[in-house]
């Protein structure tokens, strides 16, 4: 039996007829659904827009073309989108909504909610005024250390970090006054998130073994640290390429969902929150992201809740 993905792909291939050129970033003045195609070669990834206009149905690829299509394809994609929209909802954290989120962070026992609010406000204002704040901005790992650092206990840390993957993090922590409060946790930071050598076929054990080796424990029963671990480019080393905080909000009256995932996507990108009612939907949400592809033959990115693996991201 073919998958829904295969069915959609085949319908796009067989029902679309060239209509005219596309001259916009996205369809104008009509609601649309985006269909993202992920390939083995990220340069070949593409996004298509499916929509209805004046009783006609279209598939559009920005600046490539607009094709007429069928009601069958339109309904299939819209029904799929509606089903998945019920699973989770992601929005930017901005100066307009951060106060409510900071309140949830405090109730959940996370530290420095007031500083988090300052970071969000500064980033939101800076992005609005300049289009991005560059490498002086906080990233996902710095955000997790800000919120979770005071709840992490440990027996030891690495004395020296000589890797490459945290170079921008370390530069921001050491040289930007707004992140100076992370300096006393710098060795814990590099121990928690930096490169971890692993033996053949033991990639998935690298993070748990590292936590065990250093006696790392996250002491908060309302929250957990979510880590996505990747293999480094040229060595048998694992590192935390992305991380965020998962909050169990079932006892938090102000929350709009049972679970909230807080993350900073990357330097210069906005802070985000994702709300969902089933914990398992976290893996589905992360799997939708085209950034988390890997080279053929390399281990799939592994996802951990604290030191326990909860899944992996496969295409």
Structural class: alpha+beta
Q: Please give the number of β-strands.
A: 15
Terminal CA distance: 19 Å
**Morphology:** globular
Mean pLDDT: 85
The tally of helices reads 9
Count of the domains: 2
Q: How do the helices and strands follow one another from N- to C-terminus?
A: HEEEEEHEHHHEHHEHEEEEEHEE
Strand proportion, as a percent range, falls in 25-35%
Question: What characterizes the major β-sheet?
Answer: 8 strands, antiparallel
Q: Rounded to an integer, what's the Rg over CA atoms?
A: 21 Å
- Overall helicity: 25-40%
Unreliable residue stretches = 130-135
Model description:
The protein has 315 residues and is an alpha+beta fold. The chain has nine helices and 15 strands. The longest helix is centred in the middle third of the chain and has 18 residues, at 113-130. Helix 3 (98-107) packs antiparallel against helix 4 (113-130). The strands form three sheets. Strands 6, 8, 10, 11, 12, 13, 14 and 15 form an eight-stranded antiparallel sheet that branches. Strands 1-5-4-3-2 form a five-stranded antiparallel sheet, covered by helices on one side. A two-stranded antiparallel sheet has the order 7-9. It is globular. The protein has two domains: 4-86, Immunoglobulin-like (Sandwich), CATH 2.60.40; 90-312, no CATH class. Strand 2 and strand 3 (46-53) form a beta hairpin.
